[in-house]
Structure formats: C-alpha cells, structure tokens
Design goal:
By secondary structure, the protein is of the alpha+beta class. It contains 6 helices and 4 strands; from the N terminus they run ββαβαβαααα. Strands 1, 2, 3 and 4 form a 4-stranded antiparallel beta sheet that branches. The longest helix has 21 residues.
Amino acid sequence: MFKKSSFYSKDHINFTINTGLFLPEHWTGLTYNEGKEIPTFPTEPECLIRKRIGELRNQHDTWYDIDEKTDENTLIVEMRTNLSKYILPYFDRTNTKEDFLNLLDSEKLILAPLGKLIVYAELKQFEKAKTEYLTILKEKN
C-alpha cells in the first residue's frame, strides 16, 4: 500500500510503501471482529505484521518524492526493485501458517498488543500462547 504524506502539496508528493501480512485466525480472534466476515482483500491496517519498505530494505524509514524534478524512469525502476527484491520475497517467506508462526518466533516485530497471544491461541499452539501470556505479565509488572 502506498502511503502519501499529508505534509506536502499536489505539486510535491511524498510517499512510502507499507506492507502487511494477514492471518485470518488473528482477525477472527479479535473481539471487535466477532461475527464479521473475514475480508477478501484485507487492508494493511488489518494485518498483524506490518512493515515499511525501509525496514524491508534494512534502511531507515524510506520515503519517495514526486515533483517537477523527479525522473520518472528512475522512480519506476526503484519501485520495480522494491517489488521484485524486497516485497515479493518477503511475502514468499510466509506461504503457510507454519511460515507465519516461524516469522513470529524468529523476528523482532512490533505487533498489536496481544497479537502473538491471539495467533498462538487461535492456532492451538497452547504452550507458545502460555509462554507469551507469561511474558506479557512479566513486562506489565
């Protein structure tokens, strides 16, 4: 998803790219979604794991500018590179629920509160859920 900055004008657009990994079990495990249909095309804010292009590229937060000086061809090449070298390979790493769990376990992620706990419980990974619960309790004390 492209995210446009609100601090610029129509003559100078500043944007970044946000990605998200959606897991239906996380979505249905949230109490405010109870009874709602799982989205066919979830938006990035509905995803448990969200990353910006800068993080996928191992850079600082990365934003792009479009103004009268922008070389369109250079920008197009950069966007194709982002897609082919960073975004699609990142998505390809999580083709299964097991891959998703491995990502949760192996990477330091900034997640919604209780995100891991909900996923582990919904996927019946009760030992992991218990460990996550105890970790949350320890952090709160």
